[in-house]
Each structure stands twice: as C-alpha cells, then as structure tokens.
Design brief:
- With 474 residues, this protein is mainly beta.
- The protein has one helix at residues 2-25, and strands spanning 34-37, 40-44, 51-62, 65-75, 80-91, 94-104, 109-113, 116-120, 123-127, 129-133, 138-148, 152-162, 167-178, 181-191, 196-207, 212-222, 227-231, 235-246, 257-258, 264-275, 278-283, 288-300, 303-313, 318-322, 326-329, 332-335, 338-342, 350-361, 372-384, 387-403, 411-425, 428-435, 439-444.
C-alpha cells in the first residue's frame, strides 16, 4: 500500500506541474483558462507545449467568462483553447454562439467562424465570421453582418459593436432599417443609447410614411431631437403625384403599359427636388421644416428655382426662397428679393414675389431678343392645371409687351400704373388690365428692331442658368 502511494503522488504532480508553472509565467499576461467540467479528459505532453483534450459537456472559465462546448483542445502554455461543437461563451448578459471558436486567454480574444451569433440583452448580432474581446467588450464581425434590437436592423459586410458604449460602426453596403425610414450608405455609426445615426458616402434615406427621399454625402440623424442634418450637396425628393403620360408607341419609352381603353401609356412621378450645400430638417408631431443653405436649386414639374437659401414648410405646402432667388415656369421667369412658392395638395398653385420683383417671358419661336416684362413691388403668378392663368403686379407696376402679327402691326407698348393684371388663355396672353395712375408709350418696330434692350424696363433681369432636374435614386 505504501508503494502504491509513492507511485501515485508523483503521477499527480507530473500531470498538473505544467499548469502550476504556466500560472506563474503568465500571471501578468492573463489569468489561466481553467477546467470546470468534462466527461473525458486526456493529457498530451510535448516539446512544443502540453495539451489537454476535453470531450463531452466541456465547461471552461476565465474570470467572468464561461465557455461551453462539445469538445475543446487546451494548449496549456499558450493559454489558448480551441473549441468545437455547440460552442457558447457567456460573460454577464452577453452570449456568443458558434460551431467553432478559438479563445486566447492572454489576449482574451474569441475568434469564431462558420456562423456566429452574439446576444447582449435585447440586441442580437450575427455574421459569417467574428471576433469578440472579453476585455474591451468589442465585437468585430465580417460577411453578412446583421444587428437588430427590436427597433432597428443594420446590415453590412463589416460591423463593429461595443458593449460598453452600445455604439455600432458598420462599413460597406450598409442598410439601416427602422419603423420610420430605410438608410443605405457606405458607412454608418449607430448609437443605441439615443438612436442617433451618422451615415457617410452615397447616403440615401427613404421615408416609410411620407414619400420623401434624402440623398447626400453625409447625413446625421438625432432621433430624440427629431433633427436631421445633411452635407455634401444633399437632395430632398418629395414624390407628390403620379401622372399618366399617353404615348404614340412603345419605342424608346420606359415601362409602357396598356390602359383599360387600350391606349399606350406610362407612369411619371411629379417630384419636388431641392438641393443645396447643407440641409437641416426639424420634425415635430405637427410639422416638418427643412432649411437649405447656400446654392439652392429646386425642380418640380415645369418649374425650377435657384436661391442662396430656402425653407420648406412641409405641412403648410410652402417654400420660401431668399438671396437673389429666381423661379422659372415654362418660358416665364421671376426675380425678386424673396419668393414664396405655394404647393397645396402637392400641386404648384401660385408663386409670390416680394421686393423689386420682375416677371419676364419670351417666345422662343419668335425673336428671342424680345422679352415681355412686368415689374412691381409685389408680383403674384397663379397656376392651374400646369398652366399660368394670371400674373398680377402691385405697387409701382410697369409692363413691356411686344405685339406680333403682320410686320406693320409689330411694336411694343410700355406702360405703368398702380397695379397690372394679365390673364392667360391656353398659355397665351388673353387680356391686360392697368389700374390707377396709368401712363404709357408705344414703340414702333423701327425703334427697337436692332436692339430691343433699348426699351427694356429699368432693373430688367434675365438668367439662362436654369437648374436641370435631378435623377431620383431607385
């Protein structure tokens, strides 16, 4: 019996001696990985390092980290465990699952492949491959990365998430989807604490409950403040109505279809677009306000506009333009100190110009140098069914109108009065009414044929810099 004890004690010392030495050597690098349970264990000493192999209901621990798996190989001197089969790592509220995980006790880094899932309370993060640090609490996942928390879903090729800060950084083909909008971008930083998002690179934001699309290089959204700011030539698209355009044939047309009556047609969106250097959006439960700063351009249907600054009051269907604004509608353009565009029910109904206002139009089928003009302190243009119906000028009003017909009838009339009202029929001037303090003069063709500008109204302005329509993203 004494001989058996002498032989058994050295065997125990031999088996666990490498572990004791390892604990001493790595105390400043990381606590050793410890075994709590296994159905079967085998020990393999070797020149390159000792190995323990565990099978069945394996449980390993390191501090507050617990690892469970079907099988594990523990490289003792390296303090590394290679785990396979239903691997689960838990750390407080965090659960990490994968079919295979390599866990380094020194760096405290878990590397998972074959499909990895991390859950932290209500947040779930999935990918094909991932790394998780039990020290920094940062998950760094790759390929088919998806994160959701019951309120938002994020997808990308690469995703990083910090359990300490609850901030996610997603890169490459990013999609963010929540109950109000869908965002696509090259990079998105999302803060789960306050639901704020910072999107960069070819950003597209599509609203779910309003037909609004926002694009830009950078879009910042502060959720609780209901505030959005966009940089890098942002464009706001407001899809207002869908028009049916009737066609003569299907050639060179996009997605033609047959109507119930057998006619060839296609759908076309009547879209408002506004772009600038910077955009800010303020949203409340009762209103939305969009502020555009510097180099504003606007397009809607037959109209376009430029200005330095603009404000769009969405619920009021009103757009204010300031800073040398110009508005075009068909062949007519309007200049003033400030211009207000009214779009009730998302249809352009009137344009109001205030301060040193001038409306000018020309018929390109006639002499392009002859431009009809009307000026005043205020000018109002009324529009119905996509056609100008009336132009009104109030306060120090003046007009210049070029008549056409036979050569002997050609001439120009220049008049002034307190107010001027011009009615249109089928896009052509039907009648002109001058009211109060009327003065006028008539110029025969011979007086201006060579240079019509000689009789233009004082302060005349004209611009050929009409902005082109923006192409809305699909």
């Amino acid at each position: 019996m004494k001989i058996q004890k002498i032989k058994f004690i050295p065997l125990i010392i031999l088996l666990f001696f490498p572990i004791i030495i390892f604990c001493q050597e790595t105390s400043d690098k990381g606590a050793p990985i410890e075994l709590r349970n296994a159905d079967v264990m085998s020990y393999h000493p070797g020149g390159d390092g000792s190995i323990r192999e565990f099978n069945g209901h394996v449980v390993l621990i390191q501090g507050n980290v617990t690892v469970r798996s079907d099988k594990a190989i523990h490289y003792i001197e390296l303090n590394i465990a290679d785990l396979t089969g239903n691997v689960v790592i838990t750390q407080n509220d965090m659960v990490l699952k994968a079919p295979h995980i390599n866990y380094n006790g020194n760096t405290r880094m878990a590397i998972a492949d074959g499909g990895v899932e991390l859950k932290d309370k209500e947040m779930t993060l999935k990918a094909d491959f991932g790394k998780y640090s039990t020290e920094s609490l940062i998950a760094d996942f790759e390929r088919n990365v998806t994160m959701w928390d019951g309120k938002s879903i994020l997808k990308a090729k690469f995703g990083k998430y910090s359990r300490k800060t609850e901030i996610a950084d997603f890169v490459d083909s990013v999609i963010v989807d929540d109950d109000s909008a869908t965002i696509t971008a090259k990079k998105v930083t999302f803060d789960r604490n306050n639901r704020n998002s910072f999107a960069y690179g070819n950003v597209i934001v599509k609203g779910k409950f309003s037909a609004v699309i926002l694009t830009g290089d950078t879009v910042i959204n502060l959720s609780k403040e209901r505030y959005t700011k966009a940089y890098g030539h942002p464009v706001l698209y407001q899809i207002d109505t869908v028009k049916t355009i009737y066609l003569s044939s299907t050639f060179d047309e996009s997605r033609p279809f047959l109507t119930d009556s057998g006619e060839i047609a296609r759908y076309e969106f009547d879209t408002l677009s506004i772009t600038s250097d910077t955009m800010e959006a303020f949203r409340s439960t009762i209103d939305e306000k969009y502020i555009f700063k510097n180099n504003v351009e606007m397009n809607k249907g037959n109209s376009a506009a430029i200005a330095q600054n603009s404000v769009y009051f969405k619920q009021e269907d009103l757009i204010e333009l300031t800073g040398k604004p110009v508005v075009w509608y068909d062949s007519t353009q309007l200049h003033a100190d400030s211009i207000t565009v009214l779009i009730p029910e998302k249809k352009l109904r009137s344009i109001l110009a205030y301060g040193d206002a001038i409306a000018a139009s020309r018929d390109d089928s006639l002499n392009i140098k002859r431009i009809n003009q009307i000026i005043g302190n205020e000018i109002k243009i009324n529009i119905a069914e996509d056609t100008i119906r009336k132009i009104e000028s109030y306060g120090n009003a003046k007009s210049l109108y070029f008549s056409s017909g036979s050569e002997s009838d050609e001439g120009a009339a220049r008049n002034s009065s307190d107010s001027i009202i011009i009615d249109f029929d089928m896009g052509k001037v039907y009648s002109i009414l001058w009211l109060g303090g009327i003065q006028g003069e008539y110029f025969p063709l011979i007086m201006f044929e060579e240079d019509p500008q000689k009789i233009f109204l004082p302060g005349f302005r004209w611009s050929d810099d009409k902005p082109k329509k923006k192409i809305m993203p699909n």
